[in-house]
Design a protein that fits this description.
This protein is about 45% helix and about 25% strand. With about 150 residues, the chain is α+β, with helices and mostly antiparallel strands. The chain folds into 2 domains: about 70 residues, no CATH class; about 55 residues, Nucleic acid-binding proteins (OB fold (Dihydrolipoamide Acetyltransferase, E2P), Beta Barrel), CATH 2.40.50. α1 runs antiparallel to α2 and α2 packs across α3. The chain is rod-shaped, with a radius of gyration of 28 Å.
Length: about 150
């Protein structure tokens, strides 16, 4: 399929396309395939008569190897945040004590926190009762009565 003079350049183009794809849709997935394609560029440059089937198999093996290397050695080395709930508003509310704005009837009610109203779930309680937020299920806060 590839002319022996063009095989290495095709892999160079594939490498550049994968790198461009990584820039447009970052996620560190295409980056590792680009490393595999770059390795294929070097292999086909050194061995220009390598058949296309062998190139495809080698690229597949190198792609899997590079992705597994990322998952094993690099994925868990990302720095941990000192504020893990920063962009998870419901997680930030856990532990707060607030009064019920609307009674909990048949398991659901409402509280006001700052300028936002939140749906709450918990035992039936009258309006005005202080409740503690103990968990969150999506945008619904799970509460318990304060003793």
């Amino acid at each position: 399929m590839f002319d022996s003079d063009w095989g290495a350049w095709v892999w160079a183009i594939v490498t550049l396309l994968l790198l461009a794809g990584e820039v447009l849709a970052p996620g560190a997935f295409m980056l590792w395939l680009a490393f595999a394609a770059a390795a294929m560029f070097v292999v086909t440059w050194l061995f220009p008569d390598l058949p296309f089937l062998a190139q495809a198999v080698l690229f597949t093996v190198l792609g899997f190897t590079s992705i597994l290397t990322y998952r094993k050695y690099f994925r868990n080395r990302e720095p941990q945040s000192d504020q893990p709930a920063l962009n998870r508003r419901t997680q930030q509310l856990i532990g707060r004590i607030v009064p019920l704005e609307r009674a909990i009837e048949r398991g659901t009610g409402r509280v006001q926190i700052a300028d936002a109203y939140w749906t709450v779930a918990g035992p039936d309680l009258p309006a005005g009762t202080s409740v503690r937020i103990i968990a969150a299920d999506g945008l619904t806060l799970i509460v318990e009565a304060m003793d």
